Amino acid sequence: RHDTSSPQEYSANYSIDLIGGSGDEVAIKLVKWDESASSFVDVASQAQVIENRILTADRVLFFNVVPVDLDDGDYIKLQVANLSDTTNVTAGTESFLFLSKR
After folding, report:
1. Most buried residue, 27, 32, 40, 58, by most Cβ within 10 Å?
2. Coil, strand, or helix at residue 5?
3. Which burial class, exposed, middle or buried, applies to 72 when counting CB atoms under 10 A from its CB (0-12, 13-18, 19+)?
4. Mean pLDDT over residues 3-28, rounded?
């Protein structure tokens, strides 16, 4: 959560390794809570199909560097959805979201 009254420019860097069902289409979305509007705002989104792998778990990798401006009370989070069915999607332990000042 950004906790200062002066707006700041940040870079949100993420690398998310999602494990799920082969052929499932999954989406990841970076959203920002906009305190002044009391609502979430979409910042970036991506969708891919999970690859069928022979020797490892079926997975897909998302990565991005996204500029985001945060004001007092704003924060960001990642949302994940399985667009194909209701089965679970799990993030690998190597996944990360890193926020740095620009």
Report:
1. 32
2. coil
3. middle
4. 94
Helices and strands: H and E segment counts in the chain: 0, 7
45: its two tokens: 């989104």
pTM for the full predicted model: 0.87
What are the distances in angstroms from CA 9 to CA 28, 82, 100?
A: 22, 31, 9
Q: For residues 45 and 35, is the Cβ–Cβ distance under 8 A?
A: no
- Name, in order, each residue with C-beta under 8 angstroms of 56's C-beta and a sequence gap of 6 or more: none
* Chain-centre distance for alpha carbon 52: 22
Whether the CA torsion 83, 84, 85, 88 is positive or negative: it is: negative
